[in-house]
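Section 3.1: Structural characterization of target chains.
Under the original work plan, the team committed to producing a structural model for every single-chain target entering the pipeline before any wet-lab resources were allocated. The record below documents one such target. The sequence was received from the expression subgroup and is listed exactly as submitted; it comprises 120 residues.
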Amino acid sequence: MTDRISIHQLSIICIIGAYEVERAHEQEILLDVELEVDLEAAARGDDLSQTVDYAAIARLLRSWARESKFLLIETMAVRACALLLERWSLIDGVAVAVRKPSAIAGADCAAVRAERRRQG
């Protein structure tokens, strides 16, 4: 059985983009995060310490993205996966989708999705 914790459309205001015009002003990006976590111990004891606190993940991703000022949404997605696997040993796998609504005129957004699993 694979259990999952998800965060949908986490809004982050940050500097991101490869072009000078993109780097002049903060813009909104949206993150979707899906975590593979065994929820059995947390459910059995109704205990937050036995799971991954999604509010803490949202806080971390917001501050990290604001500080990082990435050029590419691809970089953000891949490095966010690595960051979450590094910080939370309970996470077995992670997928991060980054959507950039202002990237392409006439399109809803540009988006990438990265998936990583814990090694070993």
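The chain has a mean pLDDT of 95.
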